[in-house]
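[step 3/7] fold_predict: job queued, chain A
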Amino acid sequence: MYRLPISYAAAIACALLAGCGAEPPDSGTTLEPPVVEVTAVYNAASNQHLFRTSADTVRAGWITFRFINASPVLHFLFLDHLPGDRTSNELLSEVSPIFQEATDLIRAERPDEAMAQFANLPEWFDDLVFRGGPGFTSPGLVSEATLYLEPGNYVLECYIKNADGVYHWNLGMYRDLHVTEEVTEAEPPKNPTLEITVTDSGLAVDGVPTRGEHLVAVHFQQEEPGLIGKDVHVVRLDPETDVDEVVAWLDFNRPDGLVSTADDPAPATFVGGVHEMPLGNTAYFNLTLEPGEYLWISEQPVAESAYRRFTVP
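[step 4/7] structure written:
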């Protein structure tokens, strides 16, 4: 986790909204994974949550996503690997409305009707693959995650909700990313200081979280993930943080689940992590720990929320 000075965050937001994006990453051969910067911004004039990316095309292989939250609300970066030649057009027209309708029905206290909506998902949704991405990141912070991407079309999205229950992808927070057949020679990060194995039963942590910088390897070994599998996020706890409130907030099936506003971004400070990936994958994320109390926590399945508290002396 990196702390982004608010003045720097504001400068980034202003520059990006004016159309001054970053240059694409160097496409030359290197052992270090190329970096794609994705910045979350909020356009108050149009009430849009937006991503600004430094590239829309990358080579296959190991890629580091640096996620800069220059917005006043919490966000994350979630990657969908779409089947065939589909793009965000199909995702937004055939999939997103079903999730939004289900959420609207949950807010109307009609849960059975909400669950029935998922039967209307298109057949190709079964072939969509969730491919990870930087985890929950509070306003003004920067997080990084390194993933291995296969060739194909991806959509970068955020499904945090506003106060009315509208997902951020319906407010502009999505971008297409094309991964070419050409493969980089980049290697995965070396020598993680902490390792987490995600299984059906929860999170197994190997290593001692100490003060300073860490490279965290996350091994996905969940056999039966269901619609959305377990992931790993890091929460920095304040003395007044209610852990039960954090667990409840992570449940997107609740009317107030995953709702983030400028006045109430989240019930705690989230400092990064990595979203779910298929069985057998490993992803990495960078983490800087200061003395204090923390949680490793998994977003899904909420009914069996996996979390572990730890202390950094």
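[step 5/7] annotate
The chain has one domain: 2-312.
Residues 88-107 form the longest helix (20 residues).
exit 0
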